[in-house]
Amino acid sequence: MMRSRKGFTLIELLIVVVIISILAAIAIPKFNNTKGKANWAAMRSDLHNLATAEETYFYEHQAYTTDMTAMNFHGSNGVTITINAGGGTPGWSATSTHPMAWPHTCAIFSSGAPALAPATTEGVVGCN
Length: 128
Known about the structure:
The chain is of the alpha+beta class.
């Protein structure tokens, strides 16, 4: 008497596991790349927002500042912003980094401050 068995064989299950592993191997690097781009966008956005905060502070106090608290500026999570005085000029410059977007850095300079690589045009965020 032959019994009909229901279920999957070991070979069928192994083939499914291999296919899922291949799909995961393709999807995970794409996902990490997307996260890196989001962190890079946050760095650029924070520098744009910083430029607005600096100009607002200048309008109210007729001077630029390196104190983010005085400007009431809060950056994105994980983004580190360093503001530099103009070095004898009335302007300012700043850089932003993110540990998950490393080695990319972004920079901006304004109001006569010396150029700060990778930014090359005053008031425009430059990234490498």
